[in-house]
Specification:
- The structure holds 2 protein chains of 2 kinds.
- Chain A is an alpha+beta fold.
- Helix content of chain A is 23%, strand content 51%.
- Chain A contains 3 helices and 9 strands, in the order ααββββαβββββ.
- Chain A has an 8-stranded antiparallel beta barrel with strand order 2-3-4-5-6-7-8-9.
- The N and C termini of chain A lie far apart (83 Å).
- Chain B is mostly beta strands.
- Chain B has 2 helices and 15 strands.
- In chain B, strands 8-9-10-11-12-13-14-15 form an 8-stranded antiparallel barrel. A 5-stranded antiparallel beta sheet of chain B has the order 6-5-4-1-7.
- At the A-B interface, helix 1, helix 2, strand 1, strand 4 and strand 5 of A face helix 1, strand 1, strand 4, strand 5 and strand 8 of B.
- Strand 1 of chain A pairs parallel with strand 4 of chain B.
Chain lengths: 233, 262
């Protein structure tokens, strides 16, 4: 005769056995399915077998034209442009870059901003050196860039993003006070490559041109600081 | 008590079925995506292929593809290829062209990629250049597109901005160029061209009037191949500007620039 505790124990163990059996059976089914896949596509212990199977795929000669080349980068940035003697104003810059090699790139940029007022204009009251139309400033430049120190930047302990510094230098033209000025420009930038097609950058650039606006001809340095986003295509 | 036990077993069985069917679904999805487009698959025949996190030698190597493995080429940026492995690891990263040319096609022939050697530079078709220089005392900024019909003959369309002390100008010139020795590293060329020159004298100068004239020019220059993607050039042109006045204007143009090939 079974005692009550014994009965309870037996009943429990029976139900446990059934559950266990069911679980094992299910796991078995599932693993068979996985195992099936494994033998078909890859097997951790039999790489050579896999490779033979894969090499049997009917394939054709590589079509170079089918490979997407992404050497162009189009971007937009915004920031501040300081015009010597004429305050600092917001600037918007559009750019098109062609990456020639991993080290060199060529870049065309177009930017637009406003010219502020000189301290002379402020102090004199009404006197104005420039008409309102002449207070728009537009510039373009063609530059050669050199990538420096490509590598990874670590964000805390967790993330690593591709990044790099670059130097740029070139020539262009600035429409300043109604005149076109031959402009040499150069600067340095920092680029973070977020993924295969998206990058973010920060650039500081000096635009150097001559003006006669204050009465004498002088070389002016006009600094631009912009942050932007760009897409590779 | 029994009812609840049965229900729990039923649930367990259902869960198992769901699990195994998901496994099935996963595997079928995997096999679909594993099937690569055939025209982008090559096989590694070197002992190994180094995969980097980015398209540049400064980015770290994070994986090595073994000899015999199949790789699918995804895209190219400069001399770097983004590839995916077709093995169970499914890694994707960037590989340099010098390693990619050591992979083989289905017929066991090495894959050839364009622009992988200096001699390819002479066979290029399209070229884009930018330059700066002097236009009879004024500053000159130029940009040009060149199309090469043969190794020797090319046509060029060039746009220039001229920034002078007394006037500004814009010039558009089409020219034909002949390079007698295209395979030389420092290769000379000769050119003939024609175009239009638009001049805008500054308003402070008396008798200022915008004018547009035709210009014909002849010139010569030399290309110096720096790398297989870059060249530097020095260019001289002698312009005759056909004016409506008694005398035509004679203008010398010098410039130094850089070209890239496509």
């Amino acid at each position: 005769m079974e005692t009550r505790p014994k009965r309870v124990f037996l009943a429990l163990s029976r139900s446990l056995r059934t559950t266990l059996f069911l679980t094992i059976a299910c796991a078995g089914i599932a693993s068979t399915v996985y195992a099936d896949n494994d033998t078909q596509y890859d097997d951790p212990l039999g790489d050579s077998v896999d490779l033979d199977l894969i090499s049997d795929i009917e394939r054709q000669p590589v079509q170079i034209s089918d490979i997407d080349t992404e050497n162009f980068e189009i971007g937009i940035s915004g920031g501040l442009l300081s015009i010597e003697d004429f305050e600092t104003n917001p600037v918007v810059v559009g750019s098109l870059t062609y990456h020639v090699t991993e080290d060199f790139f060529v870049e065309a940029r177009f930017g637009t901003s406003k010219i502020g007022t000189t301290s002379f204009e402020k102090l004199s009251g009404g006197a104005s050196l420039l008409s309102d139309d002449d207070r728009d400033i537009r510039f373009y430049d063609l530059s050669l860039g050199l990538n420096l120190f490509p590598g990874e930047t670590f964000i805390f302990n967790r993330w690593a993003v591709n990044s790099g510094f670059y130097f740029v230098g070139g020539v262009g033209s600035t429409e300043f006070a109604g005149d076109q000025k031959f402009t040499a420009s150069g600067g340095v930038g920092y680029r973070i490559i977020a993924n295969d097609f998206l990058a973010m950058n920060l650039q500081v650039r000096d635009h150097i041109f001559e003006t006669e606006i204050t009465g004498e001809s002088k070389t002016t340095h006009n600094f631009e600081v912009v942050a932007g986003i760009s897409i590779f295509f | 008590m029994n009812v609840s036990k049965n229900i729990s077993r039923l649930l367990l069985v259902l869960a198992c079925l769901v699990a195994s069917s998901t496994a099935n679904a996963n595997s079928s999805a995997k096999s679909e995506s594993d099937k690569p487009p055939n025209t982008k698959v090559t096989k590694v025949v070197d002992p190994y292929l180094e995969m980097r996190t980015g398209p540049g030698r400064g980015y770290p190597i994070f994986y090595v593809v073994e000899e015999g493995e199949m790789i699918t080429i995804d895209k190219r940026r400069t001399d770097w290829f983004k590839i995916e492995t077709n093995s169970r690891h499914e890694k994707s990263g960037w590989v340099h062209v010098t390693q990619m040319v050591r992979t083989v096609n289905a017929d066991d022939a090495f894959v050839t990629f364009p622009n992988s050697s200096l001699s390819d530079a002479a066979d290029r078709k399209w070229e884009w250049s930018m330059s700066g220089g002097d236009f009879q005392g004024a500053s000159l900024i130029s940009s040009a597109v060149t199309y090469r019909f043969t190794r020797n003959i090319a046509v060029q369309l060039q746009g220039s901005q001229i920034l002078g002390d007394v006037s500004d100008g814009l010039m558009l010139v089409a020219s034909i160029q002949h390079s007698p020795f295209p395979h030389w590293r420092l290769s000379p060329y000769f050119q003939l061209g024609t175009g239009v020159l638009h001049t805008e004298p500054f308003s402070t100068i008396v008798q200022s009037e915008d004018r547009t004239n035709q210009t014909v020019n002849a010139g010569a220059g030399a290309n110096l191949y720096l790398t297989r993607r870059f060249l530097m050039f020095l260019d001289y042109r002698y312009h005759t500007v056909l004016t409506s006045r008694d005398k035509n204007e004679e203008i010398s143009e010098w410039k130094l620039g850089l070209s890239v090939f496509f």
